[in-house]
Specification:
The protein has 464 residues and is α+β, with helices and mostly antiparallel strands. The chain has two domains: 14-78 and 153-337, 2-Layer Sandwich (BirA Bifunctional Protein, domain 2); 362-460, Rossmann fold (3-Layer(aba) Sandwich). The protein is built from 13 helices and 25 strands. The chain has helices spanning 14-24, 45-64, 80-85, 88-91, 155-160, 162-169, 214-231, 279-283, 288-294, 329-340, 376-390, 405-415, 453-460; strands at residues 5-7, 27-29, 41-43, 69-71, 77-78, 93-98, 105-107, 128-131, 134-137, 147-150, 175-184, 199-209, 239-243, 255-263, 266-277, 309-310, 317-318, 321-328, 341-346, 351-355, 364-370, 396-399, 419-423, 434-439, 445-449. Helix 2 (45-64) packs across helix 10 (329-340). The protein is globular and about 75 Å long. It starts with a strand and ends with a helix. The relative contact order is 0.13.
């Protein structure tokens, strides 16, 4: 065809992604009609499909394609003692300063040249530590003893359920527990769209190993997670492994390797793979004094268990070490959008925006377009094809009744639909019904029979 690709010299900005997300229904500012909530976002019709597809790909690789990992979905309400013994009450803080001129509040460690990021003034308060956890009242009476936290990470629910999973599944070390879920952090300065927000989702694995094997497993999981992101479509040139210095490590970590991605605002963490040693399981094992204090609020609590495993001979118990690959789902969505966003000039002088997503991540798997929306025969065949393809279980198949094939192609290019299927007058010519498949990335069109469509699509949507 004449509109072949010519070039792509576009430099991506965050505004490009934000504009696309709102225009095409990927992501909206939460409570937008009331002015919005800073650092809180809602996923629209296409955004939730992309997000779910990325979650499903992670879950499939972690749980379904392995035989050493179990799944879990723990509560977002965290017992206050859980987060005390995990260290979050004492250490989960950021340094905060206020600008005395414009009253802006910001993180002290992110300020450049000691100046307010809002007005440029150097007249700032001394830094003070701010705990990032959200408190909530638990039960009908509100007092100093009845509060709990919204979890700041999903990991602690895995650690406190370690014994439950171990006993109910008869697993042996090494094995892992995977979880995808919401977490909440009262960020001082949410920024860069969905990169740093107050409500977000994590994809976390806690992989339990014998002490002494932890460094080997840590290296294995670093490589596994790095290559998984490449399989999701991220370019190697935009990915980097960064080993944290000792002074950067979290209080629980022996070593951490971050997978950095080159976002539009710069290279930042997409996923961290930490060697948490035995800190967490050890910390959550038995503390009678605190349990007695909490019993004033929640009486009759069963006291404490040792979160340990037995060696293969069942003679000795030990506290397992933990390797933790922890990825931000929202950051993953942002990286996938940034990687796929392409603005192309065509040889005929026009321009198109195309979201080049891996087929298994695409929000819409295929669009079925009737060439003439007023032609009953064409419309009925297009709807019939839509229903047939939907039963394949690959994801969302969209029926496009717009009456303009060119506009339908452009809209589906922009949201990442891998190909469009057009039913036209030629469909009914000859002995066999045929349709046109138009491919997103190349814009090449090919003619195939209707009966070939299901098999063609299933092959096309191979995950890798």
């Amino acid at each position: 065809m004449s509109n072949t690709l010519a070039e792509n010299n576009h430099t991506l900005s965050m505004n490009d992604i934000v504009s696309l997300c709102k225009r095409r229904g990927f992501i909206f500012q939460s409570s937008d009609i009331y002015g919005g909530l800073q650092g809180v976002y809602d996923y629209g019709p296409l955004g939730i499909e992309l997000k779910n597809n990325l979650k499903n790909a992670w879950w499939r690789s972690m749980v379904y394609e392995r035989d050493d990992i179990e799944g879990l979905d723990s509560s977002i309400i965290a017992h206050r003692l859980t987060l005390k013994h995990s260290g979050h009450e004492d250490t989960f803080t950021d340094p905060m300063v206020d600008c005395k001129e414009c009253k802006a509040r910001m993180r002290e460690d992110l300020i450049k040249d000691g100046k307010c990021e809002n007005c440029g003034s150097s007249n700032l308060t001394d830094p003070r530590m701010f705990n990032l956890m959200f408190k909530a009242n638990f039960g009908p009476v509100e007092n100093d003893d009845s509060f709990i936290y919204l979890r700041p990470e999903t990991a602690q629910g895995i650690f406190t359920n370690f014994k439950n999973v171990l006993d109910s599944t008869s697993r042996k070390i090494p094995f892992g527990i995977a979880q995808i879920g919401k977490a909440f952090r009262n960020e001082i300065t949410p920024r860069n769209f969905i990169f740093r927000v107050r409500e977000f989702e994590q994809m976390e694995l806690e992989f339990f190993v014998e002490p002494g094997t932890d460094e080997e497993w840590h290296d294995k999981w670093v490589q596994e997670r790095y290559h998984w992101w490449i399989r999701q479509g991220l370019n190697k040139k935009n990915l980097k492994l960064e080993h944290q210095d000792k002074n950067e490590l979290a209080h629980y970590a022996k070593a951490t390797v971050d997978i950095l991605y080159e976002f539009p605002h710069g290279a930042e963490e997409l996923e961290g793979i930490a060697n948490r040693t035995d800190f967490d399981l050890g910390s959550h094992s038995k503390n009678q004094e605190d349990l007695n204090l909490w019993a004033k609020v929640q009486p009759n609590q069963d006291s404490n268990q040792k979160l340990v495993a037995q060696d293969n001979q069942k003679q000795n118990s030990y506290v397992p070490y933990v390797i933790e690959p922890s990825a931000g789902l929202d950051r993953g969505v942002l990286a996938i959008l940034a990687e796929g966003f392409t603005k192309e000039k065509l040889e005929n002088g026009t321009e198109r925006i195309v979201l080049k997503l891996k087929p298994h991540l695409a929000p819409i798997k295929a669009a079925v377009i009737p060439l003439a929306k007023n032609n009953e025969q064409i419309v009925q065949k297009a709807k019939e094809i839509t229903r047939t393809l939907a039963k394949l279980g690959l994801g969302r198949i969209r029926y496009e009744d717009v009456g303009n094939v060119g506009k339908a192609y452009r809209r589906n290019d922009e949201v990442g639909t891998p190909f469009c299927i057009t039913v036209d007058f030629d469909t009914f010519e000859g002995d066999t019904e045929t349709v046109t498949i138009r491919h997103r990335d190349t814009m090449i069109q090919e003619r195939i029979t209707v009966s070939e469509l299901p098999e063609t699509i299933v092959k096309y949507y191979n995950i890798d």
